[in-house]
Structure formats: structure tokens, C-alpha cells
Design brief:
Layout: E1 13-17, H1 24-30, E2 37-41, H2 43-55, E3 62-66, H3 72-84, E4 89-94, H4 96-109, E5 112-117, E6 129-130, E7 141-142, E8 148-152, H5 153-157, H6 161-172, H7 174-188, H8 194-216, H9 218-239, H10 248-259, H11 266-281, H12 285-295, H13 308-317, H14 336-345
Parallel strand pairs: 1-8, 2-3, 2-4, 4-5, 5-8
Antiparallel strand pairs: 6-7
Helix pairs in contact: 3-4, 6-8, 6-9, 6-11, 7-8, 7-11, 8-9, 10-11, 10-13, 11-12, 13-14
The structure holds NADPH dihydro-nicotinamide-adenine-dinucleotide phosphate (NDP), 1,3-dihydroxyacetonephosphate and zinc ion (ZN).
Binding site for Zn(2+): 170, 250, 266
Catalytic activity: sn-glycerol 1-phosphate + NAD(+) = dihydroxyacetone phosphate + NADH + H(+); sn-glycerol 1-phosphate + NADP(+) = dihydroxyacetone phosphate + NADPH + H(+)
Keywords: Cytoplasm, Lipid biosynthesis, Lipid metabolism, Metal-binding, NAD, NADP, Oxidoreductase, Phospholipid biosynthesis, Phospholipid metabolism, Zinc
Length: 350
Amino acid sequence: MELKEHIIDLPKKVYIGYDIIDNIKEYILSLNLSGPFLVVTGPLVRKIITDKIIENFKDESVEVVEVKIASIDEVNKVEELAKSSKINTIIGVGGGNIIDVAKYVAYRIGKEFVSLPTAPSHDGITSPFASIKGLGKPTSVKAKGPIAIIADINVLASAPRRLINAGIGDTIGKITAVRDWQLAAKLRGEYYGDYTASLALMSAKHALSCAKILDKDIRAGVRVLTEALISSGVAMGMAGSTRPASGSEHLFAHAIEILYPDKALHGELVALGTILMAYIHGINWKKIKKAMKKVGLPTKAKQLGIPDEIVIKALTIAHTIRPERYTILGDRGLTWEAAEKIAKETGVIE
Ligand SMILES: NC(=O)C1=CN([C@@H]2O[C@H](COP(=O)(O)OP(=O)(O)OC[C@H]3O[C@@H](n4cnc5c(N)ncnc54)[C@H](OP(=O)(O)O)[C@@H]3O)[C@@H](O)[C@H]2O)C=CC1
Ligand SMILES: O=C(CO)COP(=O)(O)O
Ligand SMILES: [Zn+2]
């Protein structure tokens, strides 16, 4: 099936390198972005990274706002401030939650957004979508794609290993997401972009290959991972939806977040979901699980403190989360018995 209209939303510039946050002012000005600027950041990141960035912004009109989670209340707070301070450019400095709030507010007020990720933990760095709690849906909504990305590898490599692993987990998910997309094209006549799907799959391949590099040279490994995460976001921008990056494995992750919130990182849940959905798809889930173990990603719900019953329940409700996006879970989902069998056979529960 052809799309009636297709807008490809991509960044104008991607700055990637070492210690490049020192050049932030130069980058921003070369993009002709005007102030006042609003830096959206998190409490921890503010202390360890953001304050240094602000120093490099001397002589410009800059305000900083701290956000704890990506919720509609935080969005409203940031939007109010942005409007009252007549902000022209929003810079998101932080993990996935911060980037999502920054790009969503930029979308709502029609201003430019610059993405400055501090952790390679998610592929929302580039994507023109955001996940905001309290909007009435657990999945992402349209947001402003970044005009520029500033990816400082020294900053990203300083993130805790758990966040780095979560980024690998989020990209591993593309293996089943693309399978689901192919299935939807076959069974439901949904638009399928071969090139975009290949791009998403390539991200998974590169993220997995970075695992070996990470142990020898953390910065080199994080660079490969960051490029994979940016690229997966490009796939979403090209597809005009998160379809190439989010399938049944993400539905499982979202279901866990609903039933048992804030226990695990997004990428960790996606990776667990990928083992389960790969099993149902009949692809080599053992190989995926082995690769996850090697990286240090949890392969059992218990490692994340998630009870077995929550995993089973999540599997049974996952298909209801985004019914318009067809996946291997079909329209009717899994029975409790089937879910339990899948979770046990893959070793996700005991
Ligand atoms: N829009 C999209 O397309 C996508 C969106 N997402 C969304 O992203 C979110 C997950 O993002 P994720 O990054 O995993 O989680 P968070 O944004 O919650 O970040 C996790 C923690 O890491 C901290 N942190 C960030 N950078 C560093 C650093 N360099 N050193 C030390 N600590 C650091 C944060 O600090 P602080 O407390 O200061 O913030 C936070 O406490 C989910 O909500 C998910 O839905 C995921 C994929 C795609
Ligand atoms: O996390 C995402 C891609 O990695 C976005 O997924 P959703 O559209 O399912 O929220
Ligand atoms: Zn994701």
C-alpha cells in the first residue's frame, strides 16, 4: 500500500565527536538559531553536565528548567516558562525522558529543538516522536524533530554502563519490530518501507557489534552505539512513525510500565520483550538472549525485580495497547496459559 502523503522529518546537522559540548555556542549560532534559549534538563544531569554547558553559553540569554519525568504536568510547566520567557529555541540535555519533554514542548509552541543526549540509552535522540505520561496513551505521539543533534561521545561514554546497555536493548528490539511490520504489510496491507526497515535492522546489528568493542574501548563502543541510535531515529523520521523501531517487544515493555512502573529502564524492558516476541515469531531467540547476556543486559524479569505474574499479565494485555498497529500478537493476544508457557520456555520467568 502507498502512503497518501509522506513527510520525511530529519535533522539538519548532526555534530558527533569528543568534547564537542565546548563548541555548543558556535554550533547553535551557525544554525542561525536565536535566543532566548531554554535548556531542559534533569536534576542529576544538571549537576554533572548541564552547568558546564551553560558556561559555554556566556553572553547569550539562557534559562534552565529541571524536569523529573516525562509527564504532562512537567510539559505544562516547561511550556508556561517557555511562553512567558519568549523562548525561541529549546535544548534538551539529558536521557530519554528529558529529550521527550523538550521536543514535545517545542512541538506545542512551534519552536526549534536541539537534542543533546547525555546517555546512549534510547533511540529518541533523533525521532520526531515523544512518550509523555498522562496524555492518555502509553505510546509515543508526534513531536518536534531536532534541527540539530550534539552528541558528545565523552559525555555519552561517562553514563553508567546500565544506561549504555539499555541503549543496546532498545536497538535489539528492531529485530522483532521489523518482523511485525512485515507481517502487518502482508496481512493488513500496511505501508512497508524496505529501506527504512533495513536501516532499523542495521542499527540492531551495529549495536550488537558494539558490545565487543565496549569492553576494550568504551568510547569507541559508545560511538558505534550512538550512531546506531541516531540512525534508528532517522528510520522513524523517514517512516513518519515509530513503526520500524517499535513492535510487539515495545508493546510488552509498555504493558510492564503500566502494570509495574519505574522498575526498569525502557531499553531493558524492550530487550526482554524481544526475547519473548522472537520466540513467537520463530526466530533465533536463543541467539538474542545469548548476546544480551554477553552485554550484561538482564534476561530474566527477576533481575529487574519484576514478579512473574506481571510478565504473564503484560503478555496477555500487550495487544490492547496500540490496537491500530498490527503485530505477531494479533487482535486477540495471548491467553494466560500461552503467555506463561512462552515466558517459561524462554527463561524470562522461572
Ligand atoms: N521519543 C522516542 O522516540 C523514544 C522515547 N523513549 C523514551 O525514553 C525514556 C527512556 O529514556 P532513558 O534514558 O532510558 O531513561 P531516563 O531519561 O529516565 O534516564 C535515566 C536516568 O539516567 C540519568 N542520566 C542521564 N544521563 C546520564 C549521565 N551521563 N550520567 C549519569 N546519569 C545520567 C538521568 O538523570 P536525570 O535524573 O538528571 O534525568 C535519569 O535519572 C522512556 O520514557 C522512553 O519511552 C525511548 C525510545 C524512543
Ligand atoms: O521507544 C520507541 C522506539 O524505540 C518508541 O516507541 P513507541 O512509539 O511504541 O512509544
Ligand atoms: Zn524504544
